[in-house]
Automatic annotation (TrEMBL):
Signal peptide positions on this chain: none
Taxonomic source organism: Gopherus agassizii
Biased composition (Polar residues): 17-29
Pfam families: SNF
InterPro entries from the UniProt entry: Na/ntran_symport, SNS_sf
The name this protein goes by in its record: Transporter
A single cellular component GO annotation: plasma membrane
Disulfide bonds: C159-C168
Alphabetized PANTHER family for the sequence: SODIUM/CHLORIDE DEPENDENT TRANSPORTER, TRANSPORTER
Length: 633
């Protein structure tokens, strides 16, 4: 619709108002401006650091190096790069653009995209809660290590402690020490018998009592999280200046130190040595796809939430490219940090690097690396900065995950929560803290593993798949591209359109099917999970995803008329297409609907079109919308 058809001049709207285009008449799109009441990032750097802090987490340090050497070393970088280009980055870009354009959270955004898919928003919030139940416990372990590091001799250096067993074997600085299959390093026994006290639990049947030391650590962490989030992006945007930048300083220090250790070259060679035959294995490509997806983090609602506080004309395309590249390079850099130390340990044990590098996940961070640190010159200093890095990496991701829930719920129920953010955040933090209590028991590591496997596994993949389909196929790829053009001034190229419509959904479907077909036995510390616990895990995963079909059924049942009737009526009356300009006039709200050059006036108050988008008059000041509004689709 051209500018002259509008009774309100475009120049009278805020700077972020939409510049309409005559060429868009046949294919109108939803265009909204920033509202005065919504928070905005104080600086562009605050947003970038928040996104980088969320995307770069503990998984970049422990998962990527392990996945890389397991799947062909340097050869793995080929499928990893391809999966990033055709799958991860397009989805990352899509979420940033959606959040910035619609300026709302993961639940209410579906009112503007495709209402029948609104259950996706609720599923995202439930998944975020499950993640918070176990992820923050891992950070609490790091905080316990951080506190334990403030000593002249690190407690996991020797076998002379009360928690050690006869199997404890300390080979550093000693000769003629035989390492057997029963041998346990001091670092391993400190982690299992001192930090976790897992010997007091026989498994999920008997998880034992709560470790009060870990309880205090978790309470302190959630206190930090609360005071970082309670005022919104104004406070969290300042905190990330420390939590997002400190890990890079520490990584560089540890890289320099690791490169000077004897045997470091063995680790680097093992890390990057290409095994081209591995590229013929489907499992390698599945691992590459899963790694880039979980690393960049589309689908968790975080990118939607963070981008919703951007200025309307912010270049989210450039942001997506920059943050994706930084994330991938960080993973690659972390591999050098880890494997220089693994090469050093292999040199000290007089074994092959692959025998040392068998640990993965938290064990790599809480057993293998601390063991190497304990035997370095200046071990106390390196232990302190290493675990401080882990804490900051974890906190950034926690900030993002919980901000996604906060933004989604507050945008969905602004009439209740608009002025109660501090109380709502306190309630959410309390729920997360209480939900984490089972992970703080003596057998809490078993619960962490169960939640890690099923809380955000195939369920989040399925959520993102439906999100990509809803945006590309139901909302319409052309309409979405018009939204991007309204913000950035240029239309995404053919490459992005093809990725959004076909390649990225296929990429996600590939991961889901492969994950469901390949279900290895769930084990931790030689403990095999019982069958009933696997069933519980599937129920946990289904409990979030089930929100999507439930909401679809609810929408179909409670919306008057059949699907065909509603669609026919919509197309016949052409009431789906038009421009909405609505502003409160001295408290008496009205809106004007422009349709084929005619102006229709109707008082707000009885389910008017604009009220489907604006929850309160204050949220609708200076809104310019060109939209298709359907009851279901």
């Amino acid at each position: 619709m051209s500018e002259q058809n509008s009774p309100v001049q475009v120049d009278s709207l805020p700077r972020q108002a939409i510049q309409t285009n005559p060429s868009h008449t046949a294919n109108p799109v939803l265009l909204t401006t920033q509202t005065d009441s919504r928070d905005k990032w104080s600086k562009k750097v605050d947003f970038l650091l928040s996104v980088i802090g969320f995307a770069v987490d503990l998984g970049n340090v422990w998962r990527f190096p392990y996945i890389c050497y397991q799947n062909g070393g340097g050869a793995f970088l080929i499928p990893y790069t391809l999966m990033a280009i055709f799958g991860g980055v397009p989805l990352f870009y899509m979420e940033l653009a959606l959040g910035q354009f619609h300026r709302t959270g993961a639940i209410s955004i579906w009112k503007r995209i495709c209402p029948i898919f609104k259950g996706i928003g609720f599923a995202i919030c439930i998944i975020a809660l499950y993640v918070s139940f176990y992820y923050n416990t891992i950070i609490a372990w790091a905080l316990y290590y951080f506190y334990s590091s403030f000593t002249g001799t690190l407690p996991w250096t020797s076998c002379d402690n009360p928690w050690n067993t006869p199997n404890c074997t300390n080979y550093f600085g000693k000769s003629n020490v035989t390492w057997t299959t029963f041998s346990k390093s001091p670092a391993e026994e400190f982690y299992m018998r001192k930090v976790l006290e897992i010997q007091k639990s026989s498994g999920l049947y008997d998880v034992g009592g709560i470790r009060w030391q870990l309880l205090l650590c978790l309470f302190l962490l959630f206190t930090i999280v609360y005071f970082s989030l309670w005022k919104g992006v104004k406070t969290s945007g300042k905190v990330v200046w420390v939590t997002a930048t400190l890990p890079y300083i520490v990584l560089l220090i540890l890289l320099v130190r690791g490169a000077t250790l004897p045997g470091a070259w063995r680790g680097i060679v093992f890390y990057l040595r290409p095994d081209w035959e591995k590229l013929m294995s489907t499992a390698v490509w599945v691992d590459a796809a899963a790694q880039i997806f979980f690393s960049l983090g589309p689908g968790f609602g975080v990118l939607l939430a963070l981008a919703s506080y951007n200025h309307f004309n912010n270049n989210c395309y450039r942001d997506a490219i920059v943050t994706s590249v930084v994330n991938c390079l960080t993973s690659f850099l972390s591999g050098f940090v880890i494997f220089t130390v693994l090469g050093y340990m292999a040199e000290m044990r007089d074994v092959e690097v692959e025998d040392v590098a068998k640990d993965k996940g938290p064990s790599l961070l809480f057993i293998t690396y601390p063991e190497a640190i304990a035997n370095m010159v200046g071990s106390t200093f390196f232990a302190i900065i290493f675990f401080l890095m882990m804490i900051t990496l974890g906190l950034d991701s926690t900030f993002g995950g919980l901000e996604a829930v906060i933004t989604a719920v507050m945008d969905e129920y602004p009439h209740i929560l608009a002025k109660q953010r501090e109380l709502f955040v306190l309630g959410l933090i309390t729920i997360c803290f209480l939900g984490s209590l089972t992970t703080l028991t003596h057998g809490g590591a078993y619960v962490v593993k169960l939640l890690e496997e099923f809380g955000a596994g195939c369920s989040i993949l399925a959520v993102v798949l439906l999100e990509a389909i809803a945006v590309s196929w139901f909302y319409g790829i052309q309409r979405f591209c018009d939204d991007v053009k309204a913000m950035l001034g240029f239309t995404p190229g053919t490459f992005w359109k093809v990725c959004w419509v076909a390649i990225s959904p296929a990429f996600l479907a590939f991961i889901i099917v492969s994950s469901l077909l390949d279900q290895p036995l769930l084990m931790l510390f030689d403990y095999r999970y019982p069958e009933w616990s696997i069933s519980v895990g599937y129920l946990i995963g289904a409990s979030s995803f089930i929100c999507i079909p439930f909401y679809m059924v609810y929408k179909l049942v409670w919306t008057p008329g059949s699907l065909k009737q509603v669609r026919d009526e919509c197309h016949a009356s052409q009431s789906c297409v038009g421009q909405i300009l609505w502003e409160p006039v001295f408290g008496a709200a009205h809106f004007e609907r422009l349709e084929r050059g005619q102006v229709f006036n109707r008082p707000a108050g009885s389910g008017s079109f604009v009220e489907k988008f604006c929850s309160s008059p204050s949220d609708c000041v200076h809104v310019a919308i060109i939209s298709r509004q359907m009851n279901w689709f």
